[in-house]
Known about the structure:
The protein is mainly beta. A hairpin with a 7-residue loop joins strand 29 and strand 30. It has one domain. The protein is built from 5 helices and 30 strands. The N terminus is likely disordered. The protein is 10% helix and 35% strand. The strands form 3 sheets. It has a 26-stranded parallel sheet that branches. The protein has a two-stranded antiparallel sheet with strand order 10-11.
Amino acid sequence: MKTKFLLIWVFLAVVSNVRAQQEKGIFGPSNWLNNWTEFKPAKADYGEATQILAGNISVDTRLTKKDVYIIQGNVYVTNNAVLTIDPGTVIIGDSDSRGTLIITKGAKIIAEGLETDPIVFTSNKSLKKAGDWGGIIILGEAPINKFGLYTSFNYDDLDPSLTTYGGSSPDGSSGVLKFVRIEYAGKKARGADNFNAILLGGIGNKTILENIMVSYAAGDAFEVFGGEPVMSKMVSYKCNGVDFKFTLGTQAKIDNSLAIRSSYISDSSGSRCLDISSYVRKENIDFTKNQTSVTATNLTMLNDSDNIEADIKAGLVKEAVYVAENTTLVLRKSVISGFKPAVFLDTKIDINDKNLKKIRIEEMYLNNCIGNIFSEGSLNNEDLESYYGNSVFFNLYSKTSNVETFNDFENPRRPDFRLALTKITASTK
């Protein structure tokens, strides 16, 4: 009887250990990308627009599935109004007028799609490409780290009086985005770089951000200025800019999320999966306030390349993660596959015990990277490799193809990017 009990205990311990190991990167009992995502959006037919969205929306408004809506110019939801979007609704961004949806501070968006009936924002072009339209801007009343309580976006033709964000309400809500796709956003702005597919300014932690997919954005996919966002099951697919960018004192949590980069469409001037900074201009920052702190758990960051070694040699591949000075990052149980290197630390970060305690990189799976963790501009990373390679961090290293690394990498419509540890061999060095 004792022997039987011991065997059962050993079996359960092994199963539990395997399960724990497999929960690096995105995870779940089933592939949560199924049904609501679209990896071939250029082939999707969403129909012609039947309703126009233009000007200001100042009263509670509902968009329904029976109509297809087109955003013309800058459309502001103002006056504490609530914009509700039914599951399955399609909203098209007008290219000629740089269609952009702005949820102003105090207003809300309730875009709660379903797994089998997602809400879609896309381009009005017959031949769709990155940057066809503007994107979505959501503004809230949570803290930022600039002097004063709030600031505004003051570029292109946005109205600065309607783009203020920031305040003293970290637990505020700007609404719900759930089972939403945003395709081909990020149009070039006058006097700036590009709009971002989704821009969050001062968003409170009661805002629900789950199951959002950004595809083929010309700017950044997700850019967060301040606030306390809680993000889960985010997907950034083949975007030109940064996949997940956090700055201006953001206190963010992001988990179970995916970034897929392409060597051939990335912006050569700083495109990466994860970008952590505390400011754009140091002179504008109040250092008595919280600086940017991000807890990122179970992220999968991969480079979709047929020949990663050749792409790296050609200079088409850069780092996956960039960490600037005066920030805190906890990056745990995540997968980084196919980058040069995996992580860059800003050259202004002194490599000492105090600073490294603020940059925790642990329980990672680092695969097929040319170098793992470097200081920017340094050719020698022995100190960092020794530090993060210590067994107390439980970081694993491997050299395997994407096909071997993930459950179903080559599936064109329903890929599965969960880690397939049964197919690969990892080491602690």
